[in-house]
Structure prediction request, 138 residues.
Amino acid sequence: MRTLRSILLVDDNETSNFLNERLLRRMNLTNSIKLMPNGKNAFDYLEALSLGKTPEEVKPELILLDINMPVLDGFEFLELYQTLDESFRSDIIVAILSTSNHPQDTSKASDFRAYYITKPLTIEKIETLLSMYDEHNG
Prediction:
């Protein structure tokens, strides 16, 4: 499995973040995992990266995004995320990571070209996500 330059976890649940970060580290997917407690913090971080304001930070290749968060939820984040320059977004995999398997949520995720994964995160789900992305982006 390839190594990613950075992963961004966006979730307000500290336990989920702890478990997901632990899993990703155990998989040796990246040396850089950034945690954000809501969509606003995540968008501000990515916007600063896209404008070159934080050259010491590494642009994520994977964003794992919860839906239900305070301040700015996952779908509100995705609406703002679409305003970032396409060249910045083009090589970032966005996956919603949620406990919901409601058809409305999965449909909305596909409207944003985001993958949809139900919690809990597993090695198999990450491997499937990365292989699906690689197939679509050859």
Q: What stands out?
A: Residues 62 and 93 are 5 Å apart (CA to CA).
